[in-house]
Write a structure and sequence with these properties.
Mean pLDDT: 93
Largest sheet: 6 strands, mixed
Helix content: 10-25%
CATH topology of the largest domain: Rossmann fold
Radius of gyration: 25 Å
CATH superfamily of the largest domain: P-loop containing nucleotide triphosphate hydrolases
Shape: elongated
CATH class of the largest domain: Alpha Beta
């Protein structure tokens, strides 16, 4: 096992396309780090630079205490698991898992011991004589993970390994991967565009956008205290709601004006938001913090809206609404609350859970102090 350190990494393709820009990340020994972001943000390129499959245009990459910029992929002692499994179709599962060890001239008894122990760990011992085409997608992914484990590398690198699986298998494999890391404690960097996958697996999350780091923090920190509007909107299902409006000052404190409605802002935000009075800003609030019912101890926190689509989901119901200014938003509410398309309702916002952002797409969250980097 070893720490991984990326220091001001930049990758430029063809001298003009910047895929990764001044990217820095510290992954602790034994940590499970997830890099998450939309397609094309540079996360896979970053992973491939760690593996040595892409050369960094600038910056330094350390694995353990070793600078590996000029070290070949086979000598970096990392194991990469790909999205498409990358198994040899003409080999048995045993031969696939043993291949890298055979190339390193590990003895046959040691190869057998490692392969059989790993196969037992992943519950694929009964598949060792089969070929990949005889396996399901989930079984093939276990084999790909097993092939990485038998090498006993310093680090695992996962490139969207679950994206080819159906929803039920993805959920099952997420649990298995998390349990596997708990047992092996191998340094892991995992790339995904699936924010639910990132939240469930990560000890810490690195959110990327357009080749640059947006926020690095523990999963709940990123969710509860997003540093900007992009991070807030990317993490969470359904995504955070954003209302455009103005901060205004009244005798009883600060309010946020949304069309013809105003909501009181919490006392804790007065000092931070005083300088923004009269300015157009964005109020963000997650769907589970919006309800037709009052929030205990809160007043002056509701807006008028019209119900659009009602989507029952069992544990909760997602209600799509629009306020009088035409701004659309979603409330995730108790499934026993009955609302019908076309209903005119007053919707209450939990003001203790709101965020205030500057107007830009990646506008800063001005309602938090000392955000975690």
């Amino acid at each position: 096992m070893a720490r991984i350190s990326l220091q001001n990494i930049t990758k430029i393709f063809d001298g003009e396309i910047t895929a990764v820009s001044d990217f820095s990340l510290e992954v602790a020994d034994g940590e499970f780090m997830v890099i998450v972001g939309p397609s094309g943000c540079g996360k896979t390129t970053t992973l491939r630079m760690i593996a040595g499959l892409q050369e960094a245009t600038a910056g330094n990459i350390y694995i353990g205490e070793t600078l590996v910029n000029d070290v070949t992929p086979k000598d970096r002692d990392v194991a990469m698991v790909f999205q498409n499994y990358a198994l040899y179709p003409h080999m048995t599962i045993y031969q696939n898992m043993a291949f890298a060890l055979k190339m390193r001239k590990v003895s046959k008894p040691e190869i057998r011991r490692r392969v059989e122990e790993t196969a037992e760990l992943l519950c694929i011992g009964h598949l060792l004589k089969r070929r990949p085409q005889a396996l399901s997608g989930g079984q093939r992914q276990r084999v790909a993970v097993g092939r990485a484990i038998v090498r006993n590398p310093k680090a695992f690198l996962f490139d969207e390994p679950l994206s080819n699986l159906d929803a039920a298998l993805r959920l099952a494999m997420r649990v298995e991967l998390k349990d596997l890391h708990r047992r092996l404690q191998t340094t892991t960097v995992y790339v995904t565009h699936d924010q639910a996958e990132a939240m469930s697996l990560a000890e810490r999350i690195c959110v990327m956008r357009d080749g640059a780091v947006q926020q690095i923090a523990h999963a709940l920190e990123v969710y509860d205290r997003p540093v900007n509007k992009f991070v807030a909107g990317f993490l969470g299902t359904p995504p955070m709601n954003f209302f455009t409006g103005r901060i205004i000052s009244r005798n009883d404190g600060l309010r946020f004006e949304i069309g013809d409605d105003t909501i009181a802002l919490p006392q804790r935000l007065r000092t931070m938001l005083g300088q923004y009075c009269g300015k157009e800003m964005i109020l963000g609030v997650r769907p589970q913090n919006i309800s037709p019912n009052d929030w205990a101890g809160q007043i002056d926190n509701s807006i008028c809206a019209t119900v659009g689509v009602v989507e029952p989901l069992g544990a909760h119901t997602d209600v799509y609404l629009a306020n009088h200014a035409g701004q659309r938003f979603i409330a995730s509410i108790d499934p026993h609350i009955q609302l019908t398309t076309g209903d005119a309702v007053r919707i209450h916002i939990n003001i203790e859970k709101v965020h205030i952002f500057e107007l830009e797409e990646a506008g800063r969250n001005v309602a938090i102090s000392n955000p975690t980097d």
